[in-house]
Write a structure and sequence with these properties.
The complex is a heteropentamer, with 2 copies of chain A, 1 copy of chain C and 2 copies of chain D. Chain A is built from 11 helices and 20 strands. Chain A is an alpha+beta fold. In chain A, strands 7-8-9-3-10-11 form a 6-stranded mixed β-sheet, sandwiched between helices. A 5-stranded antiparallel β-sheet of chain A has the order 2-1-4-5-6. The longest helix of chain A has 18 residues. Chain C contains 9 helices and 10 strands. The longest helix of chain C has 12 residues. In chain C, strands 2-1-3-10-4 form a 5-stranded mixed β-sheet. A 5-stranded mixed β-sheet of chain C has the order 7-6-8-5-9. Chain D is mostly helical. Chain D has a single domain, classed as MetI-like fold (Orthogonal Bundle), CATH 1.10.3720. Chain D is globular, with a radius of gyration of 20 Å. The chains are: A alpha+beta, C alpha/beta, D mainly alpha. At the A-B interface, α6, α7, β16, β19 and α11 of A face α6, α7, β16, β19 and α11 of B. The complex binds adenosine-5'-triphosphate (2 copies) and magnesium ion (2 copies). The site of one magnesium ion has 4 residues of chain A, from α3.
Chain lengths: 405, 405, 245, 232, 232
Amino acid sequence: MSRIDNSNNSSAIRNISDEQLAVAQPKRAAPSTLALAFKLAFSHLEISIKQNISISAITGIYGDSGSGKSSLLRVIAGLEPRAKGQVSLNGTVLQDSDNKAFIKAEKRQIGLVFQDSRLFPHLSVYQNLAYGAKRQTNRQLTIEKVLALTQLNQLQHQNVTLLSGGEKQRVSIARALLAEPKLLLLDEPFSALDKSTKSQMLTILKAIQQQLQLPMLYVSHSLSELQYIADQLVVVSAGKITQVAPIHQAIHQLNSRGETSPKTSLSLTIAEHLPDYGLTRLTLPAKKSTSKNHNIYLPILEQSNSQRLISQQLPCIIYARDISISKTKPEHSSIVNHLPASISVIQYNKTNALVTLKANEQEFYAQISLWSAKRMALTTESKVYIQFKANAVHSYYFTEPTANA
Amino acid sequence: MSRIDNSNNSSAIRNISDEQLAVAQPKRAAPSTLALAFKLAFSHLEISIKQNISISAITGIYGDSGSGKSSLLRVIAGLEPRAKGQVSLNGTVLQDSDNKAFIKAEKRQIGLVFQDSRLFPHLSVYQNLAYGAKRQTNRQLTIEKVLALTQLNQLQHQNVTLLSGGEKQRVSIARALLAEPKLLLLDEPFSALDKSTKSQMLTILKAIQQQLQLPMLYVSHSLSELQYIADQLVVVSAGKITQVAPIHQAIHQLNSRGETSPKTSLSLTIAEHLPDYGLTRLTLPAKKSTSKNHNIYLPILEQSNSQRLISQQLPCIIYARDISISKTKPEHSSIVNHLPASISVIQYNKTNALVTLKANEQEFYAQISLWSAKRMALTTESKVYIQFKANAVHSYYFTEPTANA
Amino acid sequence: DKPKQTKPLRIAVAANFAPALKILLANLPNKDAINVQMISAATGTLYLQIKHGAPFDLFLSADSMRPELLEQEKLIIADSRKTYAYGQIALWSATRALSGLSELNHYSGKLAIANPDTAPYGKAAQQALTKLSLWPQVQNNLITGMNINQTFQQVRSQAVPFGIVAYSQLAMNKYQGIIIPPEYYQPISQQLVIIKSSQQVKLAQQISDFILQEDNQEKLVQLGYLPIKSIPLIEKNNQVNTQYD
Amino acid sequence: MTDISADLLALITTLKMAAVTTVILLIIGTPMAWYLAKWQSRFKVFFEAVVALPLVLPPTVLGFYLLLAFSPTSLPGQLWQSATGSQLAFSFSAIVIGSVLYSLPFVVQPLQKAFEQLGDHHLEAAAMLGAGPIDRFFSVVLPLTKASFITATALGFAHTVGEFGVVLMIGGNIPGETRVLSIALFDHVEAFNYANAHLLSAGLLIASLILLSLVYLLGNNFNKKQQGTVKL
Amino acid sequence: MTDISADLLALITTLKMAAVTTVILLIIGTPMAWYLAKWQSRFKVFFEAVVALPLVLPPTVLGFYLLLAFSPTSLPGQLWQSATGSQLAFSFSAIVIGSVLYSLPFVVQPLQKAFEQLGDHHLEAAAMLGAGPIDRFFSVVLPLTKASFITATALGFAHTVGEFGVVLMIGGNIPGETRVLSIALFDHVEAFNYANAHLLSAGLLIASLILLSLVYLLGNNFNKKQQGTVKL
Ligand SMILES: Nc1ncnc2c1ncn2[C@@H]1O[C@H](COP(=O)(O)OP(=O)(O)OP(=O)(O)O)[C@@H](O)[C@H]1O
Ligand SMILES: Nc1ncnc2c1ncn2[C@@H]1O[C@H](COP(=O)(O)OP(=O)(O)OP(=O)(O)O)[C@@H](O)[C@H]1O
Ligand SMILES: [Mg+2]
Ligand SMILES: [Mg+2]
């Protein structure tokens, strides 16, 4: 019952999916290294960043409204000559206020999808895309292909000023992709899209990233979107970078800071499809040789691609509220996933308790009521079972995203 | 562990919450009736609407990108004289192409928050708000109050062209509120806000709606946002209105159409707070006099307001994936909610089964794997237990919204 | 003994005569009691304006044609049309002193004159050049000014080496030039008329008489004009190279 | 009357004429520009061209035709006379009318382009906040096109000050009434008063420079706030 | 030479002068306007005022000063002579230079305002797609300010055609070289050839009307696409 299957535009997606799957083992190029050490003072906020970021695929940028995400992208893009300090990419100095060095925006080969689209009002949809395509020489993508991927075929001769909000965003991203830059910056590119279009676009973006080996920085307010698309997360808060970590770790760190609804973020290996049961089995490999692999089931992955998915890695989210704890092995329940685990931390909050558990060295987070915590007399080191429904295992593309629904 | 409590801006919210709570029993004014019967043809799409909508509080508008939501609002607002047909509000004809009647936008006393903010670039934040306030006579809201509510105090003298995406949206909504129209149209007003700011803004909007008895039409891509804020839902698809129903019913109808992740949407009565257990008890009242009330627990509601919430209605969402089915009464589990229910429908999909159950005449939806469905040999009319965690009961404000996280 | 003047007396004067008139009027008897306004413009302009109701009292034209036309159009007081001076033309260069008209003989550069079709001084220049058989030679090298003042400025700025200008312009600015003998061109008779619509005909008449007065006519000679009686006369202060023929 | 005081009188007349003309130009030019900017018709270009026409005729020729029109024997001249009781040609009103016609394109065209570039977005937003057409004009259009209004005012004013042919022809150079600075300056040159001419030119230039600088200073406030990071 | 063929010759000279002037104006006026639009400085207003100055001086007076400058004995005139071998005053080049100076504000000011209103948003977007300054100018600035370029071209061209005082003073009315239509027209009026004058005026007006209409037609394509729902 995947949305993609129901969609009438699925052929476009399958085209690119056939060539390069969303979860295909990426043929990694050397990561791009962004060295940032600058300050940019506004009236109410000083953006002050000192951080090296190594971008191998898509790095997410997460932070509150007004925290400075767009400004950070503008500096990297070369639109803020006023920034004091240094910015360099892969060892090349992009700007350095001390040495009065400044490589112009158009020379940086960096693409930027603006938060406010900024389509050229004098050009049609097609001409806007052609604008980006004309000025580069790689030509790995054609305008026709990108039009199809972003479902803009029907609108290609339309005046861009008359497009709907979501249509504008798609044109803007298509235009930036066609310029095939060395680094692509995306500023909330899908905020005006409905959920199903958004998940299609995310999948396409991810596939293109891998096909072109194009590193990206992706700003979003949605962690589930970021978890699906990014392999690393940068957290921005009040003008500073407060955290840079691989995506799962970063999300877990946000858990303990109480910044979002706590969740377990992990990547699992696809083991087999069980069409009769409507499930796909993933394995949580044993990290110690002594313990055995655990199985985790989720609703079966889309049929057309499923066979070739075997043994690939799938990014998954399980919300802490979806995981329950049982002292005995659960029976007679529709809940398919239960793993033996041991409690490592119990954090009591005002209204609930956040329990960190380990199963095969993988951390899981369970959020339970204070009442349950009391009743079950949980203590650290207790051996328990964690249980969660197959439906609780979320992967942005292959099962329905629950977020934003 | 409510977000609101942790936020440093919570005082602003408490101000308005103290006067008029988000879930306070609304002192309902007579609903506004919008009678729409018009066509508006674009090159690729004809918007063709024939529908009477009765707006008592906030009516949500939901639909895919490019389906015609913004265009619908533009017609109601009086920005599309080209629309053929009639539009009237509470019996007053706003436009009628047959009789060449057309009340101008500025005479309709309808407010519109545009998808693209449209702040006046020559005015500061404060002056933008004053623009709206100056031209109306009600003056129930003051600029200072709205500045505080929308957390724009610090930015009030800022040049609006330099604001971040989310800041722009807040200014735009503040300006529209200050104009105190008779009907307010909001076009994805919070798409650029981070989750916690968004949930604060939604609560404030809802409180203002009730305080001013100001009917609103609210366009969004997020059903959970709409479920929290709207009491009725209009679904737009390819230029047509395909559904108008009370919010819970509308969401359930979307379930069976497979349009979104299936969920149970319901309003429950707040019964008591159990601070020791970190839970609040809600009751699902028996509809037949023969059966007894059921209890549903969710993480305890925010302390400061909790006492006065007793016996008020709380809109809640429980995702179908969060509800599991057990043939025996579940024990030894951290899951606090279990209700006896009987299965009314089992819908087998490709990868899972959607089970509709009834408990006290309230429909619940549970999504389980095909495997579980088979193993448990579920049939219609079977008596079973449904179980879900306290954390699975979502209410946008009082517990953490999981959506968009 | 004069009735009190309600409006100033407006004298419309051709631009080239305006400086001279100003000098003459400086000696007007009881000039403090009379409010006189001098309005100068091109003769053609003034003519058009008078034709369309301009509130002028006296009109000093740089030619005789416009006054005649006004007379035919019955826009002037009967018998008020008088010649008040004759203009003279002179060859001039602002770059160097000239020896005589013969300098033009083998000259192939630019020569400035006023427009022969519209300006009386231009017409006179054309006649003189024709008479001197120089016309075919210079015809294609002419810089023609809108009026004689423009021609004077063009030569004075040294942008044109030679020009045929009004002798009055040279006299008043103390420049040296070669006067072209009056017999080489038809006399440039400058006439004045009193406008019919004038409400101060008496005063206008008074000024007209004043200009034609003997002593003022004498003064005109110093200002580079020929007095009205002089036309049959041979010029006195002769600087022209008479060996020219 | 000395030369200096005559020039002063001319200066006063000039300022009066230019000020009145500019005010009239703004009053009639603004709605014309708005109409031309928002009107969607095939004939629009024709009217745009008509507005620009006064430019094509040399001022003296334009003045000639206006003189024909304003003369007491022509219909417009007679209508004016019967309406106001005084003659149109050679009056202050005449030079103002002439200047308005002559300077119209300099006011209408910059405003029209500014209105066209403005688009409807902000107007729609203002309408939704209850602002009617007049209100929208003063609260949104005017401030957003302020720079163009200043250009229009400056061009219109300066062009009127420097105007010569039309004013001379239909005004008749009457001191205190239609004798303006440009004519006075011309007269100085014609009368070989070069010293006076240079002085007056220099004075005019410096005064204009100061005036125009002040005007442009007004128009620059808004731009200062812009970011201006990518220069061309 | 008949009047008609003389007028034809003047027409050709006029068109040549106006065309060359307009091209030069666009070439030098565009960067000036850009610079003035984007430059952030206190002195900017001063330069803006300087550009507008030619407007303030009556053309004949401006012509007088230009004549002094262009004469072979003055420095600019000498420089020209040694550079080109021919005299500047009374040449076609002289009237073109004079017209350029005189019409400069009509080209610079509309362009400057258009550039100011344009803002940086689209330029930034273009830079991010790899377009350098020149590329950005032709692919973004020019099409988005097309309407103002057309205004500038039309005003510049028309003003040059109608120019009279400057051209006459420094051009000297030489048939086939510096005798332009406006002078011919003036001469007809002065010489009482009213029939010819009317004919020539009417011809000039009609031709200009057609030409300007065509020019404005070009500029209107883009606006047609606009929605235009809330009129003022
Ligand atoms: N040029 C500027 N001058 C002054 N203040 C600015 C400027 N640009 C941004 N700001 C301010 O800096 C802060 C950060 O802005 P920025 O656009 O980077 O935020 P953001 O993280 O992208 O927010 P959002 O998610 O709402 O888009 C905001 O408060 C904004 O008002
Ligand atoms: N004035 C117009 N002329 C032509 N087509 C238009 C016009 N306005 C809107 N459209 C088209 O009509 C469709 C509906 O547009 P609308 O803006 O109403 O969509 P929407 O539902 O608001 O979408 P989104 O969620 O992306 O904002 C789009 O395909 C758009 O391109
Ligand atoms: Mg931003
Ligand atoms: Mg929309």
